[in-house]
Amino acid sequence: MQMLKKNDEIMISIESLGSNGEGIAHYFGATVFVPFALVGEQILAHIICAKKSFYIAKIKQIIKPSPKRVTAPCPYFVKCGGCDLQHIAMADEADFKTELVKNTLKKYANIDVVVNKTIADKNEYYYRNKFAFPVANKNGFVTVGMFRKNSHDIVEIDSCCLQSSMANTVLKLFKEYLTENKISGYCEQSKKGSIKHIVFREADKKFILTVVVADKNFNNFEPLIKKLKTQNYDFGIYKNINLLGNNVIFGEKDEHIYGLKELELNEFGIKYFVNNRSFMQVNDNIKSKIYQKITQEISDSETVIDAYSGAGLLSGIVAKKAVSVFGIEIIKEATKNADYLKKINNLNNLTNINGDCAKVLPELAKKINGNFSVILDPPRKGADAKVIEAINSTLPQKLIYLSCNLATLARDIKALLNNYKIKFVQPYNMFPQTANVETLVVLERAEEK
Length: 449
Prior knowledge:
By secondary structure, the protein is of the alpha/beta class. It has helices spanning 90-109, 165-180, 222-229, 284-296, 313-319, 332-344, 357-367, 385-394, 406-414, and strands spanning 9-13, 16-17, 23-27, 30-34, 42-50, 54-64, 130-138, 141-147, 154-156, 195-203, 206-213, 234-241, 253-259, 263-267, 270-274, 303-306, 324-329, 350-354, 372-376, 398-403, 420-428, 438-445.
């Protein structure tokens, strides 16, 4: 194999796309990964990282472009770490994600199954209902933007193509507020500075803005409130104090500064509230499509266990149809919120249980009279191994698994296939312009052999 070193340049042809949407080529037996390259393109590649069995390169020049290549609308594309796929047309992005799901299931679990075409929404841009931007001092100036991929170097941005017009206006006004009031950003090296992050969450033309500070005595919010009021927005502001030198955005303590404390929403007839800390899918339209599909899989005569129920929104939606629903959640604050959702929606057939799924689910299954289904919507790390064991021991009639991580999804499904068969695999383009995909898999209990 001919060895390359950093800064070498080579001519290569892109053969396929990797799991992050990067182009893949081969050079004398070694794999070359090239972000933002497309299949069929001939490129002059500049090596930026050389390992024994693979290289990472950047595009120096596209000699022969793909006919599928499009011009990215964002001036920060390839610079900031927010997007991976703006150079791919929306239909081709959906095809890529369909193949990605199929290939990942095959690679990690040896599952060869038909994968439905990825469902997308017409809004390929301006779809996010939340942003979190770091704030820092850079070259003597306060900077707000996005981290470059795999770094803590901030790319300053004035607007983001994935955010709503309201979010981009708030970003603009916040940057003006910092400059006009000579407010400092945080410096990771010196551990000095006032503001570390801003987090924005919107719903129904209203928003909550959380200012994460490294100085617990920082209270200069009046100029910000005054500036935001000029837009006639209905909004709230929180101060969050984070004195820790880690990568976690929020510290433990929140202080309500002004206006709205939470945002009220209504979906599928369920009234609920979100605040600055609540988990909520970032793409409202795709979220609705997924939840509609899940409810279609639930009959009006069955009992459902929602095994990672969080604040109870999906449990509540399903409870509008099923005979009874049990939501299991290990975080006490989330269970408290789920109980409040149950109360304000008069869901007498919903029971929220605070506890570990691996312990609660087997005990609950023994008490349920008749068949039941289980909904799994775990965090990125996937379902706990004990939860999978509990499912295999209690054998629910149906499993509805929603995942944002294909590798852990494949792992968990593989562990279930002795007792279950796959009914369908449906990807959703929850995160357009990125390589991330949300996947819904429904499994039915296999007939006893």
